[in-house]
Every structure is written in structure tokens, then in C-alpha cells.
Amino acid sequence: MMERKGIIAAGNMLVDHVHQIVQWPERGWLAEISHSERSTGGAPLNVLLTLAKMHTGLPLQAVGLIGQDSDGDYIMAMLEQYHVNRQHVQRTTFAPTSMSQVMTDPSGQRTFFHSPGANRLLDLPAFDRLDNSMKIFHLGYLLLLDSLDMPDGQYGTRSARLLAQMRENGFETSLDLVSRKGDPRYQPLVLPTLPHLDYLVINELEAGEFSGLEVRYPDGGPHIPHIASIARELLNAGVRQRVVIHCPEGAWGETPDQPGVWIPSQKLAQEEIVGSVGAGDAFCAGFLYGCHESWSLADSITLAHACARASLLCANAIDGAKTLAELKAEMPAT
């Protein structure tokens, strides 16, 4: 039997128009933009381009829907530049390419103004006839893919149906969510997908929204017992291999048959952080590489931290990405 190899990432494809601003303005007032740049954004592009820049040699494939416009042309050019298979990136005249205007203040905190565009139309037929020699299928972001978030009579949601089909086709499956405060759909949209997942990689904000538990103490520090409790809840709800909940201070990882582990991140000084756009996706890219290569849970998380750290040193999602050799050299021993 042929060994499967490679990572497919699917879902939200967009262009981030990233602006560094002098300060966040009061409502009705002007704020000066000190620097602007364009970059790709969304889970599949951020994950795949980070992996491509790691120079691992893994086959990489993108699945998504973009418009017939200049932002769509830019996405296709970036995929070609980094040798990511774009055969399943379809184009439509019915909606523009999704885009975000991203405002990054001097602290590195970002605020998004998002236009969903063509991502709203991405649906099950786009996933027909994917390359079954690939190993991992990663989908992101749930709660931001309108057609896939629709109900399904048998599976609960269309995204749950999709993930079930991918597992039936022999893929290991992975999921990421969007950070959206106060969205009542976390449980109804996430729960149906969990039995069809091998890996769930989310941040502490999403974990808190899903569970209703406080994920930070009143002093702002991470509430690790609550984060651990949420990870166990997600495993009990069906995730088959690994749940990881990450935050700036570290990440909790857990499997069905091993005790959970907290792996702290390497701390960056506030002035070192240029922008946090895409840091979660960079984390996910490193983690998925570790899973693909059958690394231990702790080593996979440590590589994920290294990828996220590199991402924080640049304004956009992929400019900071480093080669695997560079990342390994910076990783502390686990």
C-alpha cells in the first residue's frame, strides 16, 4: 500500500490589505496609516505558504473559491510562486475575492474589516476528486464559510459531511475556527464535526466561546485548568487524535490516551511584535507538519510555537516564515 504524503488546505481564501496605523482613533476621527502592504490571508493560504517556505518537500494543495478580479489573480500568482498545487482553486464571476482591511496598531494588535465575498459560495462540489495520495486535509475557518456552515439532515452540518467524506477517502482531517466573540453558533456548528476530526487546533478565545468557560484569570493570565478541561471535553465529543488549544503564553495539547501537556511559548517583548496577522495559522502549519511526520505531541507543539513566533516578527501572515532547518535551530528542547 502506497504511503500517503502531503497536505491539502481548504476554505477561506482572501487578500489582506494590512495597514499599520499610528493609533486607534476615536469614532469619527482620523488615524494616520504609516505603512500598507498586500498579502494573502485565510487558513489555507497561510498554512500552505508557511509550509512551502519551510522547504520540507511535502506536496501541498489548495482548495477554494476566488473571484475573477485582481485580488484573485494575486492569490493564483502567489500559489504558483510557491509551487502549491492550485488545480482545485476555482474562480467565479458571482462574487469578488474575499478580502480584509487589517488595521495593526503600535502594540501589534490587529482589527479586521472583512468582506466574505466568494468564500460564502464554497460548497461540497469543490471537494470532488481530490488527490487521494495526500495525507492530511485541513479545513478553515468554520463559522466563516456560509455554504458549508448550512444544516445537513444526516451529519448536522455540510462541513461535518465534508469532513466525514474526507475520512472515508483515507485522509487525516484537521479543522480550525474563526475567532468571533459572542457568536451563538460555536456549539451547533462545531459539535457535529468533532467525530470526523483527527486534529483540532484552536485558540483560547475560540475554546472559551465553544465551552462558556473563562479561559483567563482576572489578572489576564491563562486559566490552564479550564483550557485543559475544554480540551478533554472536545476529545470526549469525538476528536480522534489530538486537540491543541493555543494562546500567546503557550499551548495545551491532549490525546485520547495520554495526559495533557502544557508547552509554554518563547516570550517576545512587546516591541518585537510587528503584527499578529496569521500567527495562529503559522502555529497550525507547524503543528500539522509534526503530525504528518509522526512527531510527538510535545515536539509538534514546540515547532508550532516556533512558526508562530517567526510570524509575529512581520506585519503580514507569511513574510516571517522560516525554513524547517532555521526553526529547528531555534526550538528549545522538549
From TrEMBL:
Keywords: Kinase, Transferase. The keyword GTP-binding does not apply. The keyword S-adenosyl-L-methionine does not apply. InterPro entries: PfkB_dom, Ribokinase-like. Residues 28-322 form the Carbohydrate kinase PfkB domain. One of its GO terms (molecular function) is kinase activity. Coiled coil: none annotated. CDD domains: adenosine_kinase (cd01168). This is Carbohydrate kinase family protein. It comes from Citrobacter enshiensis.
